[in-house]
Amino acid sequence: MKKSDKKTEAQICQALTDVCDIALDQVAGFEWITHQVNYNRFPHSLQIVCVFRDEAARTALLLKHEDLFLRQLIVDKLAGIGVKLPRAERQISFDSEEACQRDHAGRWNHRLSSS
User: Fold this and answer.
1) Would strands 30-36 and 47-52 be described as parallel, antiparallel, or unpaired?
2) Does residue 11 have a pLDDT over 80?
3) Burial of 63 (0-12, 13-18, 19+ CB in 10 A)
4) Are 77 and 15 a contacting pair, CB within 8 Å?
5) What DSSP string describes the chain?
6) pLDDT in tens, 20-76
7) Which of 54, 80, 83, 94 is the most buried (most CB within 10 A)?
8) Are residues 94 and 67 in contact, defined by beta-carbon separation less than 8 angstroms?
9) Assigned CATH class of 3-114
């Protein structure tokens, strides 16, 4: 990884940590956030996953349209570090601990690499 990529990675991690802190306080059932990126295709390759405790919490988020709040929060925090998501609606997704346990025996590394 190039030095500039390492700097960008650290900035992304900090921005997503800020998102996480806010979401833990304001979004019911939210647990944590993660991302994956290939810096050879950045920012198009940036994928962000918001993880909820269970499918009920994830579904409630979508039904209440709170996903719009969370997406906008992510977009704004990333914009603050100069990162624009070209297709935020496709680059930000929502998942649950329950679904990972059911489909991948709780192994997030397998689940994320298969998506």
Assistant:
1) antiparallel
2) yes
3) exposed
4) yes
5) --HHHHHHHHHHHHHHHHHHHHHHHHSTTEEEEEEE--GGGTTTT-EEEEEESSHHHHHHHHHTTHHHHHHHHHHHHHHTTT---TTHHHHEEEEEHHHHHHHHTT-HHHHHHH-
6) 999 999 999 999 999 999 999 999 999 999 999 999 999 999 999 999 999 999 999
7) 94
8) yes
9) alpha beta
* Both tokens assigned to 45: 């390759």
- The domain segmentation of the chain, as residue ranges, is 3-114
What six digits make up the tokens of 66? 């709170």
Place of tokens 């979401």: 23
CB 90 within 8 A of CB 72: no
CA distance 96 to 17: 18
